[in-house]
Design brief:
The protein has helices at about 5-15, 35-40, 110-120, 135-140, 145-150, 160-170, 185-205, 225-230, and strands at about 20-25, 40-50, 55-60, 60-65, 75, 90-95, 100, 105-110, 245-250, 255-260. With about 270 residues, it is an alpha+beta fold. The protein folds into two domains: about 5-120, N-terminal domain of MutM-like DNA repair proteins; about 135-260, Helicase, Ruva Protein, domain 3. The two termini are about 30 Å apart. Residues about 215-220 have low confidence and may be disordered. The structure holds a DNA duplex (13 and 13 nucleotides).
Length: about 270
DNA sequence: TTCCGATGGCCAC
DNA sequence: TGGCCCTCGGAAC
């Protein structure tokens, strides 16, 4: 689940429903017992998302950092919550809502300095209002990695995962294997806009739906997974733009999907 | 019903 | 490079 869109969506929901509430915290699994003890009894002051990282500030300056990783999950209960699973790392409970967090890559309390350090290493997040496209452009072009590799580097641009990478490069008609250093301003503008709009829509809707994905039959309003993407996970199927079979290749041990025809622009512009 | 791979990223080797 | 975290959707049975 968790690319930047999911994290921003969680932050919006938590801001709307949880800020100002007092929480009790515990760690049914036991791996965050000490942190939960320090959180317990405090009100939630603010929630912020940066890339794939989520920051909850509690009163008294206590800061919770969560990164969901691949299998992390947050469950929300507005009324009575069921017993947490044995793997539940953190349970945050108020009279109004309860959260169950399980499987996170990171769930820790951070000092203000540690949080600032972590955030200073994150690249521009297209969903953050202060995001600077020109800084993102410079960061992306640094070094010699292929564009597809640079896009997953959270220190260059943050919040982009494997689905967004494939769909945004396809929308922007950019060749994924060209060195990112060859990216030209016009190509970057298309890429940034594609990332921004895909992330924004996905943060609102809760999942990624590519605008060029084959139209779903109206009879089936709840699009199935394979109908939501233009190229991601569609190896061998027809490109929705030109009909060419979608390519799949392994790049830095992540699967990369692209149309070998419409993403073969001469010069990365 | 069961099983497997993944929308991450760190760490040990 | 592989293990881990240990969830979830979708495919296989």
């Amino acid at each position: 689940m968790p690319e930047g869109n999911i994290i921003h969506r969680l932050a919006r929901i938590h801001r709307r429903w949880l800020v100002g509430r007092d929480f009790t915290a515990d760690s049914p699994q036991g791996r965050f017992s000490e942190g939960a003890r320090r959180l317990s009894g405090r009100a939630l002051v603010s929630v912020d998302a940066h890339g794939k990282h989520l920051f909850h500030h509690f009163e008294g300056g206590v800061r919770l950092h969560i990164h969901l990783g691949l299998v992390g999950n947050v469950k929300h209960y507005l009324t009575r919550a069921p017993p947490p699973s044995p793997a539940c790392r953190l349970r945050l409970a108020s009279p109004h809502a309860t959260l169950h967090l399980s499987g996170p890559q990171a769930c820790e309390l951070l000092s203000p300095q540690a949080e600032a350090e972590l955030r200073s290493r994150l690249g521009e997040d297209p969903l953050r209002p202060e995001a600077s496209p020109s800084r993102a452009f410079e960061a992306l072009r640094r070094g010699r990695s292929p564009l597809a590799v640079a896009l997953l580097d959270q220190e260059r641009i943050s919040g982009v995962g494997n689905i967004l990478r494939a769909e945004a490069l396809f929308l922007a008609r950019l060749p994924p294997l060209r060195p990112a250093s060859e990216l030209r301003p016009a190509g970057f503008e298309r890429l940034w806009e594609a990332l921004r709009s895909l992330l924004e829509d996905a943060a609102r809707d809760g999942r990624i739906v590519a605008p060029h994905a084959p139209p779903a039959p109206w009879q089936r309003p709840d699009r199935r997974r394979e109908d939501r993407f233009s190229v991601y996970d569609r190896a061998g199927q027809s490109c929705p733009r030109c009909g060419t079979p979608i390519s799949r290749l392994e790049l830095a041990s992540r699967a990369l999907f692209f149309c070998p025809r419409c993403q073969k622009t001469p010069g990365v512009s």
